[in-house]
TrEMBL record:
One Pfam family linked to the record: Amidase
Record's protein name: Amidase
Organism of derivation: Thermocatellispora tengchongensis
Native organism taxonomy: Bacteria, Bacillati, Actinomycetota, Actinomycetes, Streptosporangiales
The keyword Hydrolase appears for this protein: yes
Protein family: Belongs to the amidase family.
Length: 485
């Protein structure tokens, strides 16, 4: 029996019971990575010798029978330090010095029995929704002529290809949810304070989170990364609490006042709003009709499961879209500071230059960002418990060397296919992408679930219900490159 392609829950249970060993599991996954990584480009570093040695150490632990991730191979995104490995963040301009210690997320995964088998590819400084850098071009396992998205590019590709059951990613403006939707896997961006963020957190926008192929695996990984094991069963219970924004009675204008809401005792009886086309016409971005249909079908699935489902009629504020782009450029300028510009890609230099120029004349999006996070998101969200939108607006673009291109093309393609995730980073709200159907191109479709602060259990529970009602293919089949049209 091969353990490649099995879930993290299955692998850990087998290792704890003695049905297999951590070393055997890790060796099988390393063999699969060696065979398939050349065609997918998911990994920058494959830790063959180190991973086998670490698997042996796990196997010899006295607490082996109690480890929730006993022997589970995991991949780590190249912006999170792993002791003994350089954290390059997809750039030749960053330090090649090995990290002295694990990031807390990596330390928690290892403490739970996981084994880090490799470091995954990202675009330079994790700035874009593509998968190319000086270290190679990551490709979508479903169609290798298409990007796996970004910036958690290699992590999503590795999970979708079955090379690891779990991977870490980070999400500053959609960098977990975008590649998850492109590759047909699950990913969750938690709210602030739940999981330790990466070192460069984009002014508090970026959160670390897991990618997986099942709701049970995703919940377990999030529980370990957050050091809150109560989340491991959240996909079954869906329990949470919330303090919502409500206008103050008798006062004109939008005044944020914390006001407790009464919640139903049954955890799965939620009020769910669907927004198949949430973007305002002023942005000029059209949503693919198949993605629109997927949101409606996901809403109907959850209505049948017992939830109240309504349509969210107001569009997102147009000014918020512009603020998101300005915030993105401001982050690029910030992250490029102190790096040798001669070693940065053309794309990165262009983004950083635009961010500096716009910031110099006061165009940085900060005011809209702060207003949306303070109360604007809650006001727009209304009385829904969860909102469902498409994760993407269009299928992923080609896998190409986008880093050699300039500002206009980079912004146009990024915004044109992935405009609907960043606003929830600005809000600081948890959000996730769930596979739901297959596009005519043969690529997966993802729907985005968003909840107010503290709503991670609701998201996990709804993902589990969608999984039970409409199971998705857990891994992309291995095949020859498809058509380029």
């Amino acid at each position: 029996m091969s353990w490649v392609g099995r879930s993290a829950v299955e692998i850990a249970r087998a290792v704890r019971r003695g049905d297999t060993t951590a070393v055997a599991v890790v060796r099988e996954h390393l063999d699969a990575i060696a065979a398939r990584n050349p065609e997918i480009g998911a990994f920058r570093i494959i830790r063959t010798e180190q991973a086998v040695a670490e698997a042996q150490a796990v196997q010899e632990r006295e607490d082996l029978t109690r480890l929730p991730l006993a022997g589970v191979p995991v991949a780590v995104k190249d912006n999170i330090p792993v002791a003994g490995e350089a954290t390059r963040n997809g750039s030749a301009a960053t330090s090649s010095e090995p990290a002295a210690a694990d990031h807390p997320v990596v330390a928690r995964l290892r403490a739970a029995g996981a084994v880090v088998v490799g470091i995954t590819n990202v675009p330079e400084l994790c700035l874009v929704a593509f998968g190319d850098s000086v270290y190679g071009t990551a490709r979508n396992p479903w169609r290798r002529d298409r990007t796996p998205g970004g910036s958690s590019s290699g992590s999503a590709a590795a999970v979708a290809a079955g090379l690891v059951p779990l991977a870490t990613g980070s999400d500053g403006l959609g960098s977990l949810r975008i590649p998850a939707a492109c590759c047909g896997v699950l990913a969750i961006k938690p709210g602030p304070g739940l999981v330790p963020p990466p070192g460069e957190d984009w002014f508090g926008l970026t959160e670390n989170g897991p990618l997986a192929t099942t709701a049970a695996d995703l919940a377990l990984a999030l529980a370990i990364m957050s050091d809150d094991m109560a989340l491991a069963t959240a996909y079954k219970t869906g329990e949470r609490a919330r303090v919502a924004w409500e206008p103050q009675s008798g006062v004109s204008g939008a005044v944020p006042v914390p006001s407790p809401r009464a919640w139903r005792s049954e955890p799965f009886e939620l009020r769910i709003a669907i927004a198949p086309r949430p973007l305002p016409p002023a942005l000029g971005v059209k949503v693919d009709p198949e993605f629109v249909r997927a949101v409606a079908e996901a809403g109907e699935t959850l209505r049948v499961a017992g939830h109240t489902v309504v349509e969210q009629e107001p569009k997102l504020p147009a000014r918020l879209g512009f603020a998101t782009v300005l915030t993105w450029l401001r982050c690029a300028a910030h992250d490029a500071r102190g790096l040798d510009r001669r070693r940065l890609e053309r794309r990165t230099r262009a983004l950083a230059r635009a961010g500096r120029a716009l910031g110099a004349v006061g165009l940085h999006g900060r005011e809209e960002f702060e207003r949306w996070r303070a109360h604007g998101a809650d006001q727009w969200f209304g009385d829904a418990d969860v909102l469902i939108t498409p994760t993407l607006a269009a299928p992923p673009p080609p896998a190409a060397r986008w880093g050699a291109r300039g500002l206009a093309r980079t912004v146009a393609v990024n915004v044109g296919y992935a405009p609907m995730t960043g606003v929830w980073n600005l809000a600081g709200w948890p959000a996730m992408s769930v596979p739901f159907g297959t596009h005519a191109t043969g690529l997966p479709i993802g729907v985005q679930l968003i909840a107010p602060p503290g709503g991670e259990p609701h998201l996990l529970a709804l993902a589990a219900q969608l999984e039970a009602a409409h199971p998705w293919p857990r891994h992309a089949p291995r095949r020859e490159p498809a058509r380029t049209a």
